[in-house]
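Notes from the 1:1 (GR / supervisor)

We went over the backlog. Supervisor wanted to see one worked example end to end before approving the batch request, so GR pasted a single chain during the call. The sequence is below; no edits were made to it. Supervisor asked that the structure be written out right there so they could see what the output format looks like.
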Amino acid sequence: MLAPVKLSAQEEYGIRCLLQLARHDESVTVGEVGAKEGLGEPYVAKLLRVLRQGGLVESIRGKHGGYRLARPAEEIRMSEVIAALGSELYCANDFCERFAGDRSVCVHSSECSLRSLWEGIHGVVHLLLERCTLAQLASSEHDMRSWVAAQLAQISAELSAPKSPKPRGCSLPTHHS
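Structure output shown during the call:
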């Protein structure tokens, strides 16, 4: 069995809060989101504040106030959500420095098959997150499994499709008369 992808608590619970908003037409209070997700109100408030700063939700003041999505769920990409809540799953910029052991740069920095694996996995995950909207994620588990399977098949086909050679200039010698 595969180990689960490790998301931060902020990413996991932030996505769950967004799903609560996506499933309601009206604004939802912090207390309502907390009750549905089993989270304390202060933590939900913090998550919704982060999501508001990321431009994904807006707060509504007044008697019927609360939070709602800033845009339709069909327009919110999961890649945006992850970016607002945390960071990239894999960051090539500092990978070799973060895992350098007792050196300033990893001993494998010039030849690293592990880095290639992580970059490939990150690429596929990023494509899935870029293609997936909050509306799709708000569907049933069965529908989401089917969508993911179809996307993985499409990505696999895209990655294995022969690449057409880049056009090159003519290398034949020219003759002047």
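Supervisor's comment: The longest strand covers residues 57-60.
Batch request approved.
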